[in-house]
Amino acid sequence: xxxxxxxxxxxYGSAAILGWLVEERGIAPHIQVWDKPKRxxxxxxxxxFVYDPAADSYTCPGKKVLWTYCRNFSKPRKPNGGKDxxxxxxxxxxxxxxxxxxxxxxxxxxxxxVMRSVHEAxxxxxxxxxxTDAYMTSFIQRWxxxxxxxxxxxxxxxxxMRFRGPKGAYEQFQLAxxxxxxxxxxxxxxxxxxxx
Length: 196
Description:
This protein is an alpha+beta fold. Among the domains are: about 45-120, no CATH class; about 135-185, no CATH class. It has six helices and seven strands. The protein has helices spanning about 15-25, 95, 100-105, 120-130, 135-155, 165-185; strands at about 5-10, 30, 50, 55-60, 65-70, 85-90, 115. The protein has a five-stranded antiparallel sheet, with no helix packed on it. Strand 3 and strand 4 (about 55-60) form a beta hairpin. Helix 1 (about 15-25) crosses helix 4 and helix 5 (about 135-155) packs across helix 6 (about 165-185).
């Protein structure tokens, strides 16, 4: 049985995992996308470039188009991007030389380059889900579960499984969960002051 959604933290928000969930399994990822931070040197970030899926190109803030290029013309271009899972888009040197905002775009390069993951559509799905109320519900549920695991690790002393095999892990986890529940029950209950 395939679940409808999967909840996880940012460490599961890589492009490869999101692509596998959305494109291969059809599972809605309630996961924050693992994005690199914006540039800190004052130049344009990738978010400032608009992607056109019909033309498979980017448009820069100066309305110039960035296309994909293949230097090795003896081999056909791979439709799924390069070997590292990214497709590269470049602006022409002529367009960038005449651009008035070139110091803000690509001060040290002849032309601007933008990289796009081959799983960017799956990443966009995850970004859209993050704006919904269902994502906030999933976030709260994940937080409750992760707090229990954090308490198991910190207060009960379960940083790792010490018994081998599924049976040993099951028994160790059952003992740790029982100890955590007993710890919750042992907490003092606030008594109401007698009135009179």
